[in-house]
Amino acid sequence: MQSVLSMQQINDILQSENEEVKLDGASINEICLRLNDGVSGAEFLAGSEHNWEVRSPSEGEWRHAHEKIGLELNPKKIEILADGVADNYRGAMMDGRPRPFNGIGPMALHRTAIETHPSQEGVTALSSAPMDRPLDGIVTRLVITPIRSGEGKKVPLNADFFANIRGEVFWTILLGVIPSFVIPIARGMGSYAVTGWANLLFGGLCAGFVTGALWRPRRPTLQYDDIEDSTLIRE
Prior knowledge:
Layout: H1 7-14, H2 25-36, E1 52-55, H3 59-69, E2 78-80, E3 110-116, E4 124-130, E5 138-139, E6 143-146, E7 148-149, H4 161-186, H5 190-195, H6 197-214, E8 231-232
Parallel strand pairs: 2-5
Antiparallel strand pairs: 1-6, 2-3, 3-4, 7-8
């Protein structure tokens, strides 16, 4: 959906006569459950090799749709997504499916959300919202998406430790140790490069470590094809 569910659409789906329905996790699940009952028989999905479902979009689906078609954003709203709450993108799904919440505690009752700025059009921020109670300003939009099975592709939980060490050693030597020896040689003090090698090495290592706080090249972006394939449920 390019726009979020309107109040009229929510009332029609839930068969409610309330003028204003405040959404929470239970009501969003009820909306998806009722709409899913008719998805399998939809004419435009007839003959599809996948099973399909209606739900709130994941963050990946939301951002891809916003980039491709430009989603309508209502100011001062909190749009609920299907993902569980997480501190970063480590362990996030790479094939568009919602990210489950891995943990225990009150955050298990929260969902990831896109929050819009109250006055600046098009400005959004990633946040979260509790789903155990109705709140003002909560909205959601729906997607029809293939049901995915299996483990799926995930962003690795940890960086490549040994690759990081190799990169740090390389740049420390290149930016610290080598200039430490080249500079006295270039100034005509080649003998000091031999007799004072320990001091030059120590100084070069210190300089190399300092450059690490100022600059290092960006790490290569992890590509989807770098991870094992996920699968879709097929009829």
